[in-house]
Structure formats: C-alpha cells, structure tokens
Amino acid sequence: MFSVSWVRPKKLPRSSPIIPARDWPWGLPKPGSSTAQPSKGEKAAEESCFRFSIHGAATSLPDIIREALVLLIAQEKERNIFDQRAIENELLARNIHVIRRRFEDVSEKGSLDQDRKLFVDGQEIAVVYFRDGYMPSQYNLQNWGARLLLERSCAVKCPDIATQLAGTKKVQQELSRVGVLEALLPGQPEAVARLRATFAGLYSLDMGGEGDQAIAEALAAPSRFVLKPQREGGGNNLYGEEMTQALERLKDSDERASYILMEKIEPEPFGNCLLRPGSPVRVSQCISELGIFGVYVRQGKTLVMNRHVGHLLRTKATEHADGGVAAGVAVLDNPYPA
C-alpha cells in the first residue's frame, strides 16, 4: 500500500449529498465533493485499514521499503489535531510511522534522489498526506516550491495536484454539462442517468451568454441559488443579499469566472437538540448533510481501487446558511436513530 514506486495517488475523498425534502424525485442531491483534507474521517480510515489487512492487499504489491514513512503536511496552528492523531495512531498500530512537517520544512530539508525518491530530514517518504495547501492563502513562493518538489517525487500523494483540482467547484460544474459524463462512461447510459440524477443544478459564470443568463436568473430569484467560490472548507459560500451584491459587483468582470452558481437545495427541516459549546441546549429546526468517504487509488491512468469506506453525518440549525463542524456551526450526528 505504501510502496514509493508502485501506487500513484491515494485519496480519502468525501462526497456530500444533502438529506432532501420528501418531494425530491431523484435520490440524494449532491452539492459537491471534497478531495482536499476532509476531516472527521478517522473512523472511515479504521475500516479502510482493516479491509486492507483482511484482504491481504499488501501481499499483492511489490517489495515495500519498511523504513519509508508517511509525511503529513501540517499547518503551523492546527485546530483539527485530534482527528489527525487518530489517523496517525491507526497507522502506527500497523507499524507505519508518520512525521509531521510544514511546507517550509520540506523546502529547507526535502530532496529527491536520481530515482525521484523523496527524502525529508534524510528519511525516505512513501506517502505524502496533505492537511495544508488547500487554499491560495496557504501558499507563498517557498510553499509553491515545496509543493512542486513533492509532486515531482514518486511518493504517493494524498491527494496529488490533479486529484485535488478535480474536487474544485469549477470541475464539478463542468462534469454536469451534457456530454461530459457520456464521454467518461461510454456505452453506459444507465450509469450516466443514475449519476446525473444526483446533480443539483450547476451553472458556469464564464464571460459570455451562458454566464450572463445564469447571473440574470440568480438576480431575479436569489432565494433559488448559492454562489460558490473555488474554496475548500465552510463559510465561503454566498446566499441571499450577499450573493446579490457579489453578482452585481462581478457581472461585468472576468473575476466572475472564478465562481459557479448552484441551485439551492431545500432539505426538509426536522426538530433536534444540538450540543455545541457556548450554546444553550434547545430543540431547533435542523437539516443534515451526509458525507460518503471513499478510497481511490490509481497507478497512472489505471484504477487500482475505488470503494466506499464510511460516512459522516453533519447536522446544523436552519438559521445557519453555511459552515461546518470546525466552524462551530454543525455537529457530528448519526444517521441511525437511537
């Protein structure tokens, strides 16, 4: 699993459908996917590691360099340290060691040998696990150089830059275009129909007639749409009056192409008690978002593994338009009633 020369990227992405209102006819609508540092996945990681061990996945790989390490690219000040440590502990239980370094450390002490093997502090790295580098503000010139070094190496990247970009809002919007799924899944009309049935409406804001029409529709009925920038994490989307003001400012600017417009999903609220720090415990009207964790491994263009390994249910009060668990808005929930 951790061969530095065999497997290319490994990823634990999350696909997040919203729990819809009862009259949504097409199953669970999916507002987006995350391929950059999805957190709260340690339980999914436990199951994934267990499946690898019972199916003997390691025996199907070439000789593994046992001394090679997992490099976790960490932020200077990390709030999600506990779920990261849970993953580290699961790996350590399987005699796989993790070192934590910043981009700056890689820039100063990272190197490649003639075979593109990656070394940091003189230690060979088998897997690079990114928990930093998913927002433009997290890159300066030195950090970009470190990311390029990591991408050029033959270490497994989790994710590599291509997979990370595949999770951006713009790519998700392009995947929804008629003809794109058909090209990716030739001769599989039923699979295409099932996938497209989960898509919420996604609209380009590129300069031109298509983008102009999308903006006009959103300004005419702002309650039907949400404006999404190319950002990971909660708290970035714009709704209602904020969205209207942003569209008025952007409509004649090339900057609008860095956003997409999405049909707003209207899930059916339900009563629940949320336990959040600093907030009184009371019954609130809530909505939920179900995230599906998956493991995806490929060697070049060859798919090695693509499977579901767990789930995450987040619930928040309807009074909050945006924001997740780390933002202090949503709480972790259970899809199975007690």
TrEMBL record:
Pathway connected to this protein: Sulfur metabolism; glutathione biosynthesis; glutathione from L-cysteine and L-glutamate: step 2/2
Keywords: Acetylation, ATP-binding, Glutathione biosynthesis, Ligase, Magnesium, Metal-binding, Nucleotide-binding, Phosphoprotein
Catalyzed reaction equations: gamma-L-glutamyl-L-cysteine + glycine + ATP = glutathione + ADP + phosphate + H(+)
GO molecular function, one term: ATP binding
GO cellular component, one term: cytosol
InterPro entries cross-referenced by the UniProt entry: Glutathione_synthase, Glutathione_synthase_a-hlx, Glutathione_synthase_C_euk, GSH-S_sub-bd_sf, PreATP-grasp_dom_sf
Enzyme Commission number: 6.3.2.3
Residue segments, region Disordered: 23-42
Residue spans crossing the bilayer: none
Subunit and interaction comment: Homodimer.
NCBIfam families: glut_syn_euk
Similarity comment text for this entry: Belongs to the eukaryotic GSH synthase family.
Protein's UniProt name: Glutathione synthetase
Record organism: Phyllostomus discolor (pale spear-nosed bat)
